[in-house]
Amino acid sequence: MLTIEPVPCLRDNYAYLLRDPGTGDVWLVDPSEADPPARAIAAVSGRLRGILATHHHHDHVGGIDELVGDGGDVWVAGHASDRGRIPRQTEFVEANTDAWQDTGLVLAGRRLLGLHIPGHTRGAIAWRLVGEGGEPDDVFTGDTLFAAGCGRLFEGTPAQMHMSLQQLTTLPPSTRLWFGHEYTAANLRFAAAVEPDNRAVAERADALPGRTTPTTVADERATNPFVRADSVEELATRRRAKDEFRG
After folding, report:
1. Selected catalytic residue, list 30, 82, 143, 219
2. For residue 113, what are the CA distances in angstroms to 10, 52, 79, 158?
3. Domains of the chain from N-terminus onward
4. Catalytic site residue 181?
């Protein structure tokens, strides 16, 4: 059975260590720096097989060069449109925005799907590991969807972000969403300002653990003001307000 371990990096980033306990094979998602993931791999005597990048920003790919090193058997996957922007990329996934695509990659027996989710960046991609034996799927959303929030619109448009968030949250409610930064407390303060009568937001904030990844589709439908935006225009207004929010 594949295990998923969040690996804190930099100030508030998450990389993820995916491990097959039966074989010792491991994979990484978004290693922003090399040392914390390398220590996590060493702690389980793992063998790095591949790296999944959700987008090209340095705080998600900065550790790839050092982690891959001189080895030629570690693949690096990203969206095809990020060619030349992700270090050592070997897998150029032609995912679309309207449907999940089978990448042909299998991690510990679980199929890996990709979905193009532009908005934060033009080449952002979500990675979805299909659950087995009734287990929920696991989706890595990078900086497109955070717990109770979404990423800034650096390269994309409000329309793209709105579509990406809606696509991610049409998955079953129990789907686990693993995101790129620990921003949840601040995001919930903004959510409370946007929807002061939303009891789900207040209850989530009151019960917040120190580490909030993963979230679930159900929680995002209930508390994420960007997922809950009824239109592109409302999302754009909320995103502008969040950029200036100091609550």
Report:
1. 143
2. 28, 12, 12, 24
3. 3-244 (3.60.15.10)
4. yes
